[in-house]
Automatic annotation (TrEMBL):
Gene Ontology biological process terms from the UniProt entry: L-methylmalonyl-CoA metabolic process
UniProt signal peptide: none
Keywords: Isomerase, Metal-binding
Gene it is expressed from: mce
Annotated CDD domains: MMCE (cd07249)
Pfam families given in the database record: Glyoxalase_4
PROSITE patterns found in the cross-reference section: VOC
Domain of life of the organism encoding this protein: Bacteria
Protein name: Methylmalonyl-CoA epimerase
Family: Belongs to the methylmalonyl-CoA epimerase family.
């Protein structure tokens, strides 16, 4: 299991992309809207892991709610796993609150699922698995 990406919630993804392009001295490697999550994402490759900027596509986006309540900032950490179904079963048995009944389509050609921050000392954890 390794960190696949750090998700950062931002108000204005265009501005945030300019900022991170300067900080990382690099161009984004991918941008993608995930309508089911009402988010637009911009990825920067940083070694084996990525930075994922997350902007809301509407006021009803979880990102809009997060930014409204907590401001911009680190939103989640995503770990890549080989078998997301097995990992979710394992964590459910351990008593973790999994936020999805089934893994769902995420960005970057991944299946994703989330573990509630209340179980992880305040950190929203995403598990992701590359689609074959
Ligand atoms: C899928 C595309 C992309 C990818 O990588 O492929 C993504 O990563 S999409 C990322 C956006 N999608 C999600 O985050 C889905 C999972 N998130 C949720 O289901 C909700 O955001 C949830 C359940 C974490 C919070 O929703 P809720 O409606 O309960 O919001 P509240 O503001 O009432 O929060 C309750 C409680 O949790 C704290 N909270 C909320 N979000 C976070 C967070 N990201 N990190 C840490 N803590 C969080 C919030 O402050 C509240 O705490 P309290 O002490 O009660 O104030
Ligand atoms: Co993510």
């Amino acid at each position: 299991m390794h960190i696949d990406h750090i998700g950062i919630a931002v108000k204005d993804i265009k501005k945030a992309t300019e900022t991170y392009s300067k900080i990382l001295n690099a161009s984004p490697t991918k941008s993608e809207t995930v309508e089911s999550e009402k988010v637009e994402t911009v990825f920067f490759q940083t070694g084996e892991s990525k930075v994922e900027l997350l902007g809301p596509t509407g006021d009803d986006s979880v990102i809009a709610k997060y930014v409204e309540k907590k401001g911009e900032g680190i939103h989640h950490v995503a770990f890549e796993v080989d078998d997301i179904h097995a990992e979710l079963d394992r964590l459910r048995k351990e008593g973790f609150t999994i936020l999805n009944k089934q893994p769902k389509d995420g960005a970057d050609n991944k299946l994703v699922a989330f573990v509630h921050p209340k179980d992880n000392h305040g950190v929203l954890v995403e598990l992701c698995q590359s689609k074959k």
